[in-house]
TrEMBL record:
The keyword Magnesium does not apply. This is FAD-dependent oxidoreductase domain-containing protein 1. Keywords: Oxidoreductase. It holds the Pfam family DAO. Residues 78-475 form the FAD dependent oxidoreductase domain. GO terms for molecular function: oxidoreductase activity. The lineage of its organism: Eukaryota, Viridiplantae, Streptophyta, Embryophyta, Tracheophyta. It comes from Cinchona calisaya. Required for the assembly of the mitochondrial membrane respiratory chain NADH dehydrogenase (Complex I). Involved in mid-late stages of complex I assembly. SUPFAM superfamilies: FAD-linked reductases, C-terminal domain (SSF54373), FAD/NAD(P)-binding domain (SSF51905).
Length: 495
């Protein structure tokens, strides 16, 4: 039996459904677990392998668990989904409502433990470019989110209360003449694409958002159709809806069970089953990898025994969000974003030319202003971008930068210090699944007959979730797709 000696130093990460999530340091490595840890059994609930050291330790833990004879059960479903963030959950939902297939969803933790729990909730098109590959997926997703909100209404539920759904419209704001030219061009592009956007002068903008101060060159692009939601509430509703299929034997959740390896069929080359830390879950039709920023290293671990040359280069791109609870100093009527955000989001590891403004290198830590109010009257300020591995610790210097940046746009914030607000603030940290080429990976894994990936949505996973889910389900069922899947194909990750 493997003996593991671990020095455990728990550090609080986040709270979800009254469970505290902690991070544990163990000899230079990091594990994540729930608050209730049995120190005698050292029963870690899950670990994420960020590098070779992590992987080795994880394998030791796995070996130790196995030798402790954790009862392993086997069950069978048509579809097994790995990862229960917004992508995995909406893929599950689409299978449940769009077919008669049964679905199992596996997560190392719980849905909002990943990037999804930190999301600001913008369901936006204003920051996308009409005519580009992603435009169609964003537009389809936008439409599907609208349908989902409407269907809640038809079922007698208020979308505002249930998923925090608000058609507040989006404001992309700029302070300089150059930004103003850019915003005007954006409005024209959107209007040419048949989307009713408006260019707002300084005066018009002030009428919409009196608390905003941009200086005399300040202007904005406004898209009244853009929406926002509360990511955590949306997840809760989708989970609840999915669970309605459990009584029919069509749905099961395997939370706190990391996928550890795949059982591959020697005859078909497909995946027969997903092995988790506790169960063997057989799949009759498809396995979908939707583990956000963990998808790359997990794929590597799961398929390393095969001769596959696949490398999904998804990286964790850390983001902080600052929430000031019950904020009274001013009210926001719309969701806002500074126009520079778009460049930070699309920055590639090797900066490429962009017609949208200055070049940014994704390696550089960036903070750009996003601001909105949620349905509870909290001011939600974002956000940062950093490529610093799988670390999810709160960095106070980043929080300060978010606050300072927001104060450059909202003078009322300059009258307050962040220290005064310590008791009424919440910080959310999430790891966006970043793809260096700026596009998610959606589709079948070459050489694996029934294995699919849906990952790498960076800062747009909430926006793109429903279109992604529809795309995956159409592929598995052999239905004609609504959006061209080619730009997202997995084969671009084959060496
Ligand atoms: C600060 C911030 C603000 C954002 N704002 C917005 C926004 O306004 N609009 C928008 O569209 N997007 C936004 N995003 C981006 C969005 O949140 C992400 O793109 C999206 O949540 C990604 O979803 P996912 O399901 O792919 O990944 P995740 O939510 O990270 O889910 C992945 C899941 O995989 C699980 N997992 C990991 N390893 C394993 C394993 N071995 N076995 C099983 N499961 C495993 C994890 O536990 C996790 O639950 C924001 C992100 C951040 C960080």
């Amino acid at each position: 039996m493997a003996t593991i000696s671990l020095k455990i130093t728990p550090k609080f990460v986040s709270t979800h459904r009254n469970q505290n999530f902690y991070r544990y340091s163990a000899s230079n490595s990091v594990f994540y677990g729930k608050s209730v840890v049995d120190s005698k059994k050292k029963s870690f609930l899950y670990s994420f392998s960020a590098d070779e050291t992590h992987r080795n330790l994880f394998q030791q833990l796995h070996a130790a668990n196995t030798s402790r004879k954790i009862k392993s059960q086997s069950q069978s479903f048509d579809v097994v989904i790995i990862g229960a963030g917004i992508i995995g959950l909406t893929v599950a939902r689409q299978f449940l409502i769009g077919s008669d297939l049964s679905v199992a969803i596996v997560d190392a933790a719980v849905p909002c433990a990943g990037a999804t729990g930190a999301g600001q909730g913008y369901i936006w098109r204003i920051n996308k470019h009409p005519g580009t590959e992603k435009w169609d997926l964003a537009s389809r997703s936008h439409e599907l989110w609208g349908n989902l909100a409407e269907s809640l209404q038809h079922r007698g539920m208020d979308p505002l209360q249930t998923i925090g759904w608000m058609k507040t419209g989006s404001l992309l704001v700029g302070k300089t003449e150059d930004e103003s030219i850019l915003l005007e061009r954006k409005v024209k592009q959107l209007c040419d694409a048949g989307v009713g956007a408006e260019f707002l002068s300084n005066q018009e903008l002030l009428l919409k958002e009196p608390s905003l101060e941009l200086g005399k060159e300040g202007t904005a692009a406004f898209l009244p159709d853009d929406c926002q939601l509360d990511a955590q509430r949306a997840v809760a509703v989708i989970e609840k809806d999915n669970r309605r299929f459990a009584s029919k034997g069509r749905y099961a959740e395997f939370y706190h069970e990391p996928a550890t390896y795949l059982l591959r069929s020697s005859s078909t080359g497909g995946v027969d089953a997903v092995q988790t830390s506790k169960n063997t879950i057989f799949s009759k039709k498809a396995v979908v990898m939707a583990a956000g920023c963990w998808s790359g290293s997990l794929m590597h671990d799961l398929i390393k025994s095969s001769s596959s040359e696949l490398d999904i280069p998804v990286k964790p791109r850390k983001g902080h969000l600052l929430v000031i609870e019950n904020f009274k100093s001013f009210k926001l009527n719309h969701a806002l974003m500074e126009v520079g955000y778009v460049n930070h989001q699309s920055a590639s590891l090797q900066s490429t030319a962009s017609d949208a403004g200055p070049l940014y290198d994704a390696q550089t830590t960036s903070v750009s202003m996003t601001a909105t109010m949620d349905t509870s009257g909290n001011l939600v300020l974002g956000s940062s971008r950093e490529l610093v591995g799988f670390n999810t610790e709160i960095d106070e210097s980043i929080i300060n930068r978010i606050w300072q940046r927001a104060a450059e746009f909202f003078p009322a914030l300059r009258e307050k210090s962040l220290d005064e607000l310590k008791k009424s603030r919440e910080v959310r940290v999430g790891l966006r699944p970043y793809m260096p080429d700026g596009k998610p990976v959606i589709g079948p894994v070459p050489g694996w007959s029934n294995f699919y990936v849906a990952a790498g949505h960076e800062g747009e996973g909430l926006t793109l979730a429903l279109g992604t889910a529809e795309m995956i389900v159409d592929m598995v069922l052999g239905n004609p797709g609504k959006v061209d899947p080619e730009p997202y194909a997995v084969n671009r990750c084959c060496k």
